[in-house]
């Protein structure tokens, strides 16, 4: 059947559209459908059209993908250098959809050597390697030590651990900053040194966020206020128990069964304690189960006969105590969180100084701030910031810039036209929604 659907021919046709040098193309396709082939073909077609190899830049996410691209290109061009005339003509035709001119065939044979001879060759790099190369070329503009080295993950981890050890040692000195020693004391009362090291390790993987969002004491104070508000403990919580009724309840409970007597003991001990908060752990079980629920029975029938409103008295106290303990737990959580972040920030700063002393960078340094990329300045001159991320993240970042006082943007995209549509259709309608709602929706 001559009109049967030929998937290879169909795919090849679609692929050729995307490899046409004059078009901008955005290709989204499943694994194994020919994306890498499209990229390699596109580079080959650019070269066949006379573009100099050093003017071509291919960015990949992984090192493996970059290596794959380089290998495929080299083997394709290598084959062309050796192929006989008919085979070469057939392969170039398949690529450009028309028989090659004589000079195109000559050029095709020479591409392998051309690429080899080009200064720096074709740049097929991971994003990280590319940014690193830019920073190496423009260290002063980027504010990094000239001749810096980028540490690998293992070196970065050991430098971080060193910063953690330095902190503990420094905070043991008598002249240690008071806020930091206090933070360490707060934390040390709760967790072991091993847990501390582990927690800090996790926190420090988010160090770019830490530095960007918290930066210093002001940031920590803002965070403390926000957290306290969310946990409902931003106002002091003061309640007075109904002591008279509680003492009457103790007397009544003492005349009941074994459980009543135990409850009487707990309540009396709390009422008479010099520091009531210190004995809360003994007091709370008078009202609450292990799971934190109010007990079904707070007084047996025998006791109710002695004091008819005892159940209401004890339930009121249970409610008051529950609220007070929640408030206290919330405040503790806020203090612990702020203490941990303060210590994490300190380690991050120590780590930053250690990197500066050694003239090394880590991979996080290649990012300006979350979702912001500085590389465009270096690529095309003039001030520009790359906003990188999902549609929601980009909209949230724009909102953040607006909130900070930016009232006009000149947006550009690569490829320009397609990106303009994408921004217009997908990003701009999201503007003005609260960043948190946006990012939550994205998850
Ligand atoms: N139009 C095509 N005709 C013949 N083989 C193709 C075509 N497109 C892709 N292939 C082959 O399919 C396989 C997968 O292609 P590849 O480019 O690695 O896919 P992806 O990068 O999308 O995973 C490769 O062996 C490639 O040569
Ligand atoms: Mg691929």
Q: Can you walk through the features of this model?
A:
The protein is mainly α and 443 residues long. It folds into four domains: 7-137, no CATH class; 150-236 and 341-361, no CATH class; 243-331, no CATH class; 372-442, no CATH class. It is 63% helix and 4% strand. It is built from 21 helices and six strands. It has helices at 7-19, 35-48, 63-82, 85-96, 102-117, 127-137, 139-142, 153-171, 178-188, 193-204, 207-213, 217-230, 243-254, 258-272, 280-283, 301-306, 310-358, 375-380, 391-403, 416-427, 435-442; strands at 57-60, 123-126, 149-150, 360-361, 372-373, 386-387. The strands form three sheets. A two-stranded parallel ribbon has the order 1-2. Helix 8 crosses helix 17 (310-358) and helix 12 (217-230) runs antiparallel to helix 17. The chain is elongated and about 115 Å long. Bound molecules: adenosine-5'-diphosphate (ADP) and magnesium ion. Magnesium ion binds next to helix 2.
